[in-house]
Amino acid sequence: MIYVVNNSNNPAYNIALEEYCFKNLKEYDQIFILWINEPTIVVGKYQNTIEEINSEYTKKNGIHVVRRISGGGAVYHDLNNLNYTIISNTNKGEEFNFKEFSIPVIETLKELGVKAEFTGRNDLEIDGQKFCGNAQAYIKGRVMHHGCLLFNVDLSVLGEALKVSKDKIESKGVKSVRSRVTNILPHLKEKITIKEFADKLMEYMKKHYPEIKEYKFNEEELAIIKKNSLEKHSSWDWVYGESPEYNITRGKRFPYGKIQIFANVVNSKIKNIKFYGDFFGVKDLTEIEEKLIDTKYTTEDIKGKLKDIDIKEYFAGFSLDEIVEAIVE
């Protein structure tokens, strides 16, 4: 097991760094990374960026916008938000396992006198308020789990920068983004800095994984990470992307996340279709999108076209009927 020391606050670089570890350092069974971003919105792999953010506010306040390679919803980071990444070689199960990878955070907080609980699909809470959202990505039996820990984040900025859909707020049974999130710091009996909290989390990892060693990138690796941060993670095409020409748009929230579709239907046949949402999945959605081209826009035809594939590979936790319902019903 290895850990990587990352002192960068550049969000595009930080996401490129964890992506490099995930895709290239495959000989290491487990990798642990802690990192902190400048004020940033990080959107999920499948989200329609322009619908998730308050564009005018982010531009005015110099807030970065980046996209990660895992699914899930948009989150806000600033210099008082601690991000952690755990990369592991593991056999992919039927469901994404968020709880197991949250144990180091829960146990570290327990040592600091704070009771934290894993709840719902992928959240960590203190006294019923969320302080951490988690996301995961899979590649051929390898999982990357990351979470953002609200330590002492400016929650007023979070509420302004994120344009969270009304149905998501209602599904959580509360009235606003700010009312359902909390920072860690107010719950600590002894006040510490975010650096000291990061050190506590690293201490836990070293105590429970005594074999863990620091990994240092060579110059060639650092050049690759920097190149990827500039050419991919700083590019408009990756962060915002292009929505297809469409004449039908639908959106619905399900237990495992929201799915939104944009489709161009001509003479009752799908000419192109694009899926967005805060769901998770393993396989590339373009396979589904291309499979549906020239399919009649009816429940029966769409279901017939998709019935022979494992829908959970693309939409974790969803049934075929729910996907069909999102598209046409």
Structural class: alpha+beta
* N-to-C span: 48 Å
The rough form would be described as globular
Radius of gyration, in Å, reads: 20 Å
Structure summary, number of beta strands: 14
Strand order of the largest sheet: 7-8-9-10-6-2-1-11
| Overall helicity | 25-40%
Task: Sketch the major β-sheet.
Answer: 8 strands, mixed
What string gives the helices and strands in order?
A: EHEEHHEEEHEEEEHHHEHHEEEHHH
Instruction: Report the mean per-residue pLDDT as an integer.
Output: 89
Residue ranges: pLDDT <50 for 5 or more in a row? 173-179
Estimated share of beta-strand residues: 25-35%
DSSP summary: helix tally: 12
Describe the secondary-structure layout.
Layout: E1 2-5, H1 11-24, E2 30-35, E3 40-43, H2 49-52, H3 55-60, E4 64-67, E5 75-77, E6 81-89, H4 103-111, E7 117-119, E8 123-126, E9 129-139, E10 142-150, H5 155-161, H6 166-171, H7 194-208, E11 213-214, H8 219-231, H9 236-239, E12 248-254, E13 257-266, E14 269-277, H10 286-291, H11 299-306, H12 320-327
Parallel strand pairs: 1-2, 1-11, 3-4
Antiparallel strand pairs: 2-6, 3-5, 6-10, 7-8, 8-9, 9-10, 12-13, 13-14
Helix pairs in contact: 1-8, 4-7, 11-12
List keywords for this structure.
alpha+beta, 12 helices, eight-stranded mixed sheet, 329 residues, 30% helix
